[in-house]
Amino acid sequence: MDAIVIRRGETAPEIVGKPRPDPGPGEALVRTLRVGVDGTDYEVIRGSHGGYPAGEDHLVLGHEAVGVVAELPADAETDLEVGDVVVPTVRRPPAAGANGYFERGEADMAPPERTVERGIDGAHGFMAEYFTSPVEYLVSIPDDLAEWGFLVEPISISGKAIEHAAASRSAFEWTPESALVLGNGCLGLLTLAMLGRRGYDRTYCLGRRDRPDPTIDVIEHLGATYVDSRATPVDEIPEVYESVDFIYEATGYARHPFEAVEALAPNGVAALLGLPDSWAFEVDGGRLHEELVMHNKALVGSVNSNRRHFAAAVETLADLPSWLREDLVTGVYGREDYRRAFPDTFDGDERTIKTAVEFSTI
Ligand SMILES: NC(=O)c1ccc[n+]([C@@H]2O[C@H](COP(=O)([O-])OP(=O)(O)OC[C@H]3O[C@@H](n4cnc5c(N)ncnc54)[C@H](OP(=O)(O)O)[C@@H]3O)[C@@H](O)[C@H]2O)c1
Questions:
Q1: Ligand 1 midpoint to CA 332 (Å)
Q2: Atom 43 (ligand 1): residue with closest C-alpha?
């Protein structure tokens, strides 16, 4: 079967032939429909994040997948049936075996050394014609969402981060009205849409692009205000617009968490999602420390998501307007055309938001 991989020492993905995987005990065989590409994939390709499976010279890419159950284990305790459309979660137990995080269904809270991540860190991903997975890591979705199912994983990431940020404000009456999303990549735009549907009165989204740009069109179609970080850095947003109750960082730009402290309103919270490279720079640590304490502000880091977040994300996906899905997904390419799904690697000249590789159809 065809698989899209990154080899050790290479800087671009390639398509290779691999044997179709045989499901082990308790595992389903899944025929892949589509696999999305996101900012994390580029970090993996560049080698700045994640790692190869032990002893392997390549990593099968892809962690945002949707597929159809092709085979189930005979003795599986599952509600799944052959033909069901499913989305796989990303984390799996490390070679040492399951630990308490997995036993509690909270693999998303495991530190990196207690887990592997398919397509990202230490385990092959889903960018192949078939993949296998223990049935407990497959979440079913309605057939009519199959073509968009690769958006479930990123939506689940945001759902978890928003949940954890809100939980940090749950000890008092918190009634957020304004939200700022840092980053106009797919994660940022999906989150902007999710926040709009959660009743925020005023939403903002930060980017660094000139008009015309498809991401700015999406931001404005969602009723949010586009903020250009080149004209208005994050810590100047209170002066130009307003201090905001909630900030969601999805740029991976390492100054943003510190600038966000200044942009938050009293009692506000910022969720940090980005995965920056190492970068040393000066900040006034004393001032930030004092600002966090005296205004009851919080910074919450968030990575990955668990099965519960995936199940909630299926409902969120169904609830998103169809124009948004269509505008966000700027290209779906057959595997023979996979390079077009990685425009940042292969010098694509199109302005893309979200791309995916299609392996088969329902
Ligand atoms: N924590 C988690 O579980 C998790 C899960 C998925 C992704 N992530 C991380 O979250 C981040 C966002 O993901 P993504 O898939 O949306 O990535 P993406 O497509 O690369 O989007 C990042 C966006 O941020 C913008 N940006 C970067 N620096 C900026 C700056 N200084 N000012 C204004 N805009 C800036 C980029 O603008 P340009 O395109 O114009 O350069 C880009 O549109 C990545 O770092 C990714 O690794 C984390």
A1: 20
A2: 185
